[in-house]
Amino acid sequence: MKTIVVFIGLFIVIFLLVVLVSYTIGIGGFGLTNVLDVTVSRTYVDVGGTKDDPESYYVVVTDKGSFEVDNGILLGIWNADDLFGQIKEGHKYRITTKGKRYQNWFMQELPYIIKADPI
Question: Of 30, 49, 101, 113, which has the highest C-beta tally within 10 A?
Answer without folding.
Answer: 113
